[in-house]
TrEMBL record:
Region (G5): 148-150
Region G1: start-end pairs: 11-18
NCBIfam families assigned to the protein according to its UniProt record, in alphabetical order: era, PRK00089.1, small_GTP
GO molecular function (one): GTPase activity
Residue intervals passing through the bilayer: none
Biological source species: Riemerella columbipharyngis
InterPro entries hit by this protein: G_ERA_dom, GTP-bd, GTPase_Era-like, KH_dom-like_a/b, KH_dom_type_2, KH_sf_prok-type, P-loop_NTPase, Small_GTP-bd
Protein name: GTPase Era
Subunit structure and binding partners: Monomer.
Subcellular location: Cytoplasm; Cell membrane
Family: Belongs to the TRAFAC class TrmE-Era-EngA-EngB-Septin-like GTPase superfamily. Era GTPase family.
Length: 291
């Protein structure tokens, strides 16, 4: 008997969705930073056992869109609410803000199992945790609730057996040796963007998109040329930094991560170009993969 299905991870920005995906996959597929809106795309992580295939879907955090890029990001979330066999709704135990009505309403109506993961319990105490679990039970009564720490790996080993019990009998949807739906260039782009999120402040990281124009793999080395697009000329100067020091730092950090990811030596060239107001331009967004 083989089980297979789609398990969609949803929640607010910074709840820990990407950290959880990486923890469950045992592999860094999604970039992770402390900044909100780190995840922009929908990423599939394909977990395989001999009699099981779980297609995890990591989505951008649910937010109220302020410009077209964010609207496109929310389209990925809406898509994910259509096609799941099980939902993992991840919530931050330390988050005191009112939850997204859009999400709680949807999850209450959806006719598939919902597992609420109360995350970051390593930053909480027993009283706060009990209060959060009672609150979420009232919000989505049908859901099962599990306290976890995705970062510390606490209780995350209980998730896979639980999902296995909930998923339907199906043949695998993907080849058993495939672990994601994204091409190599996507992970290059995301790795560079993660380093930009970590190294720059304020609006700069949110004004950046990365496109890899060359990915040439040889036996022991991969040659990569990637373009960092910004919205304004002044941002280009900030990305490059004094005597090119800032972009050199980004390049070094990205190269180190990519060498681990691909298990090969990496030769990485970074270029910076201006694409004015791309976050508000329908055609640019489409070209960057935001349908």
């Amino acid at each position: 008997m083989h089980k297979a299905g789609f398990v969609n991870i949803v929640g607010k920005p910074n709840a820990g969705k990407s950290t959880l995906l990486n923890q469950l996959m045992g592999e860094k597929l999604a970039i992770v930073t402390q900044k909100a809106q780190t995840t922009r795309h929908r990423i599939f992580g394909i977990y395989n056992e001999p009699d099981l295939q779980i297609v995890f879907s990591d989505t951008p955090g649910v937010l109220d869109p302020k410009y077209q890029l964010q609207e496109k990001m929310m389209d990925f979330v809406k898509d994910s609410l259509q096609d799941a066999d099980v939902f993992l709704f991840i919530v931050d135990v330390t988050d005191k803000e009112i939850p997204s009505e859009f999400l709680t309403e949807k999850l209450n109506k959806i006719p598939v199992p919902v597992l609420i993961l109360v995350n970051k319990i390593d930053k909480s105490n027993q009283e706060e945790l009990e209060k959060a679990m009672l609150f979420w039970h009232q919000q989505i009564p049908k859901a099962e609730i599990l306290p976890i720490s995705a970062l510390e790996g606490f209780n995350t080993d209980a998730i896979l057996p639980k999902l296995k019990s909930l998923l339907p009998e199906n043949p695998p949807y993907y080849d058993k040796d495939q672990y994601t739906d994204k091409p190599e260039r996507f992970f290059v782009n995301e790795t560079i963007r993660e380093k930009i999120l970590l190294n720059y402040e304020k609006e700069i990281p949110y004004s950046v998109e990365v496109v890899t124009e060359l990915f040439k793999e040889k036996e022991s080395i991969i040659f990569i040329d990637s373009i960092i697009y910004v919205e304004r000329e002044s941002q280009k100067g900030i990305i490059i930094g004094h005597k090119g020091e800032a972009i050199k730092r980004v390049g070094t950090q990205a190269r180190e991560d990519l060498e681990k990811f691909f298990a090969k030596k990496i030769h990485l060239n970074l270029f910076v170009k201006v694409k004015k107001d791309w976050r508000k331009n329908e055609r640019d967004l489409k070209n960057f993969g935001y349908r």
